[in-house]
Write a sequence for this structure.
């Protein structure tokens, strides 16, 4: 069974204080690993897809990396508007094509 | 390009009633997936439709059903509502085929409250 574990559950940063969020996964053949951002009461907003170990993608202050067992979302010099829940999900080549989500990391960036 | 739209945004029902939620995917997307999000269980997959056919189904009881129309719009139905069905129901629209295959883009969700 595919599993995704995200850590930490919650993270409080000062504005400008860089950090990383972790997503550990087990999947029977990784088709893709996805990062989403979710604001309270809204649907998840797509950020990145990573397909193979060693791949990296960047968007503004966010950078996602992938190894064979985990993915990191690095946040550089965060701003208060980066406060949200960050969700990681995996999709396997076999079985259902659905996304299996982790429980998320709640990030709060204080000014 | 317009995003995924879901209607209604909020619903209040009582136990035993049934409810129908609607989702319009991004233009050109043929895959529509439905997810249930609750504080305790997180995001859980309900089912996926592609070209009017249910392609995958999650581990939910038969009270949860769905369908997709020829214009890719999708509906999900929950019959005999229970208190535990209170949740945010999310629809995701996806591409299918060559990379970026099946990146899923979510709608704003329908907040269902069962009293």
């Amino acid at each position: 069974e595919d599993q995704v574990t995200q850590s930490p559950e919650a993270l409080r940063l000062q504005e400008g204080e860089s950090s990383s969020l972790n997503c550990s996964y087990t999947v029977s053949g990784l088709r893709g690993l996805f990062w989403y951002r979710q604001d309270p009461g809204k649907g998840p907003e797509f950020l990145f897809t990573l397909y193979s170990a060693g791949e990296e993608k960047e968007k503004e202050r966010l950078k996602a990396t992938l190894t064979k067992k985990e993915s990191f979302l690095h946040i550089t010099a965060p701003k208060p508007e980066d406060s949200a829940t960050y969700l990681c999900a995996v999709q396997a080549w076999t079985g259902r094509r659905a996304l299996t989500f982790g429980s998320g990391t709640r990030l709060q960036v204080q000014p | 390009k317009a995003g995924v739209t879901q209607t209604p945004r909020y619903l209040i029902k009582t136990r035993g009633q049934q409810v129908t939620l609607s989702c319009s995917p991004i233009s050109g997307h043929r895959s529509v997936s439905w997810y249930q999000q609750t504080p305790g269980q997180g995001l859980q997959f309900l089912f996926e439709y592609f070209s009017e056919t249910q392609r995958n189904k999650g581990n939910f009881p038969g009270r949860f059903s769905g369908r997709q129309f020829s214009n890719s719009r999708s509906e999900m139905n929950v019959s005999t509502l229970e208190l535990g069905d209170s949740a945010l129901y999310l629809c995701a629209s996806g591409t299918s085929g060559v990379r970026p295959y099946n990146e899923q883009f979510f709608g704003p969700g329908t907040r269902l409250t069962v009293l």
User: Anything to note?
Assistant: Chain B touches chain A at residues 4, 33, 35, 42-45, 48, 55-58, 88, 90, 92, 99-109, 111 (CB under 8 Å). The longest strand of chain B covers residues 42-50. The two ends of chain B are 37 Å apart (CA to CA).
